[in-house]
Amino acid sequence: MKRISFVLAAAAVVVSLAGINHGALAQIGPGDGAGTGAGTGPKRGAGKMRKMDPERMLKRMEANLGLSAEQKEKIRPILQEEIQEMQAIRNDTTLTRVQKREKMQEMRDRYHARIGEQLTAEQRQKADDMRKKAKERWEKRKNRVKECPKQTNDMK
């Protein structure tokens, strides 16, 4: 009888440890933890979204488009204004998610055009190509999410 109790107690400990380990792994998101297994290790763009920073955006534009100092000074206030407007849209509780998305897209188009006015024809073409590639990546990622079946309670 003692032996059966001991085996049951040991089995309960193993099951509970497995549950704790499973829960701990579920807490680790992309880019968290170490290792090379699926869902671990650093990934570009994974995890928490960074706060939009006009200086970081300008550096990226400078690196990709070769902005001059004069162009940077003209584009900086446009980016700052864009970020403020984007934040206002995000914080507007009267809008639905779809309405926010539509307003954001309109806003991005408007600011893209304003920034494009400060670029040379070659830079503008490169910026348009970069934007097109980013949209394709977004669509690809969005479609991949749609294809994945949602996890239900019976799958957990």
UniProtKB/TrEMBL annotation:
Residues 27-51, 113-156 are annotated as: Disordered. Residues 123-156 have a biased composition (Basic and acidic residues). Keywords: Signal. Residues 30-44 have a biased composition (Gly residues). The keyword Signal applies. Residues 1-26 form the signal peptide. This is Uncharacterized protein. The lineage of its organism: Bacteria, Pseudomonadati, Thermodesulfobacteriota, Desulfuromonadia, Geobacterales.
